[in-house]
Design a protein that fits this description.
single chain; 82 residues; alpha+beta; four-stranded antiparallel beta sheet; elongated
Length: 82
């Protein structure tokens, strides 16, 4: 009886760990290239994650991002003056 309880507990723990990690499967956005005038961001899934990174990049130059090419996995933003 104790062995079956341990197996069930182990299965529940593995299931909980799998559920917790399932939200971490999407690739994180990263800057592929950029300068003061534009930035290219590789992303997966939601373009909002790319926009957040573009805002940080453009803010370094006191500019704001404007999406010019919303590709499937590569978004291009122009950094324009505020």
């Amino acid at each position: 009886m104790n062995r079956s309880v341990a197996i069930v507990a182990l299965m529940l723990a593995a299931n909980a760990a799998g559920t917790a990690l399932s939200g971490c499967t999407a690739p994180h956005p990263f800057i592929s290239g950029g300068d003061a005038n534009s930035v290219e961001i590789t992303y997966g899934g939601d373009i909002a994650s790319a926009l957040a990174l573009a805002r940080k990049h453009c803010a370094r130059y006191e500019r704001v991002p404007r999406l010019v090419d919303p590709g499937i996995d590569l978004a291009v933003f122009n950094c324009v003056h505020r």
